[in-house]
Amino acid sequence: MKIIRASFQRPFGLRLSDFGFRSGFGFRLLGLPSRPSQQGIALIIVMISIMVLTVLAAGFAYSMKVETKLARNANSEAELEWLGRSGVEYARWVLANSMLDPSQPWDSLDQPWATGSGWLGPTNSPIAEVQNPFTLGRGTATWKIVDLERKFNINAPEPVLQQVLPQALTLMGDSPGDATAIVNSILDWIDTDEQPHVEGAETEYYQTLTPPYGAKNGPLDDISELLLIKGMTPEIYYGMSATNYQPSYYSQQRTRFGQQAAPMPAATVGMTDLFTPLSDGKVNINTASAEVLQLLPGVDPMIAEAIINGRAGQADVTAPGMIGPYRSVGDLQRLPELPRGGPLINTISQFCDTRSKTFQVQVDADVGGYKRTFYAVLGRNNQRDVQILSFYWK
Q: Rounded CA gap, 75 and 71, in Å?
C-alpha cells in the first residue's frame, strides 16, 4: 500500500503541484481561466437565465391576462348586446314622448332628444326626465340622437337632384365642368335603366374596373355607396374637415376624356355631410346646417346664415317674435334678409319643413370595461309608432 500511494503522489518523480493542481485544479496548465474568471462567467450565465425566465414569465402572465379578459368579455357578450338594444328602445321612448307637448309642434336642436337632457312633454314628472347616460344592471349606456332630415335626400327625384347636386359640388369647390360627370354618374347609379347620361356611367363602365361590378340601378341604401360611383373621390365624399388629407395628398387630377383636370380646391364639407339616403324628403330648417340650406335653389350664404341665426334665438327688432325655433316654414318671412311674399319662400316650402321623421341613434355600451357601439335608424310616424328601420353594431 505504501508503494502504491507513493507512485500515485509522485509518478515518474513528479508532484501534483507540477500540474497546477494546487489551487486552480490544473486549469492553468490547460490554458483555462482561473477561479475568479469562472465566478464572473457563472454570474453572467445566471443573470441571462434570470432575464430569460423573467421574459417567459411576463409573456405567460400577459397571455393569461388576455385569456381571462376574453373569457370575461365572452360572458358579457349577451348582456352587452341587450344593453345596446335597450339604448335603442330608450331612444324610441324619447322620440315618442318628444311629441307630447302640443305647444311645440316642431323638432329643433334645443329639445331633449337632441341635447340629451331635459324634460319630455309639459309634465315635470320624474319619469319624464331624460337620462343620459343611464345604468342597467352592470352596464352603462350613452346615447345620441341625430335627425336625418337635417340633410338632403340623395334618393330624391332626378329633376330635384339635377338642381341640388351641382350646387353641392360647387359648394365643395368643384368646377362646373368636372361636376357634370359626377352628377350624371350618380343619376345613372340610381336610375333603373342602362342608358348612361352625358359623361355618366352604367354597368358597362364599371365592368372595366378591378374588381368589376355593376351599377346598382336603384336607390342608395347607404351613403358610402357614393364611393363606388365614377368620379367620386374620398376628398369629395368626406370633405377636408373630416379627413387628415393635406393638399399634397389630394387627387391632383382626374381623368376626363383622357385629359387631366386642374387640382380640386380643398372642401370644407363632403357629400356625407350634405346627403342622406334615408329621410322623408324634406329638410328641417330647425336642424339643417348652413351648407345644407345652401343646396336649396335661391338660398345664398347670407340667407342661410340668417335662417341659422333666426332659429338660434337672436333677437331682431326688425323681425319681432323671431326668438327660438321656427314654428313653420312661413316664419321665414319675418327675416329681413328674405323678401316677403316672394317666390323664394314658396321654393323653400317645397323642400323644407319644421318636423323630422327619421333619426339615427348611436348607443355606446359599456359592461365592466367591455365596450361596443350600436347604431339604429328609427322612423317616427307619430307618438305611438316609432319603428326600427335598421340595427347594427361595430
A: 6
Q: Using the 3D structure, point to which of 213, 244, 274 is the last residue of a domain.
A: 274
The last residue of one of the domains, among 219, 248, 274, is 274
Helix (H, G, I), strand (E, B) or coil at 361: strand
- Beta strands 134-136 and 352-353, pairing class: unpaired
Report angle CA 175, 178, 180 to the nearest 5 degrees: 110
Q: Which residue segment(s) compose the domain that 216 sits in?
A: 157-274
Domain for residue 112, yes or no? yes
Give dist(CA 313, CA 300) in Å, integer. 21
Grid cell, residue 362, equals 348611436
Before 211, cis peptide (omega within 30)? Answer: yes
Local confidence pLDDT in tens for the 394 residues of the chain: 444 444 444 444 555 455 444 544 444 444 545 566 667 788 888 888 889 888 888 888 888 877 776 666 566 788 899 999 999 999 999 999 988 778 788 999 999 999 999 888 776 666 678 999 999 988 999 999 999 999 999 999 999 999 999 999 988 887 777 889 999 999 999 999 999 999 999 999 999 999 999 999 999 999 999 999 999 999 899 986 554 444 433 343 333 333 343 344 445 789 999 999 999 999 999 999 999 999 999 999 999 999 998 888 654 555 554 567 898 998 888 888 887 667 888 899 999 999 999 999 999 999 988 899 999 999 999 888 999 999 999 8
- Asked if residues 92 and 387 have their Cβ atoms less than 8 Å apart, the reply is no
**371 contacts: CB under 8 Å, gap ≥ 6:** 364, 365
> How far is Cα 168 from Cα 174, in angstroms, rounded to an integer?
9
pTM above the 0.85 mark?
no
The count of domains in the chain is: 2
Q: Are residues 190 and 245 in the same domain?
A: yes
Q: Where are the beta strands (DSSP E) in the chain?
A: 134-136, 139-147, 152-153, 255-256, 259-260, 275-276, 283-284, 352-353, 358-367, 370-382, 385-393
Reported residue count of the chain is 394
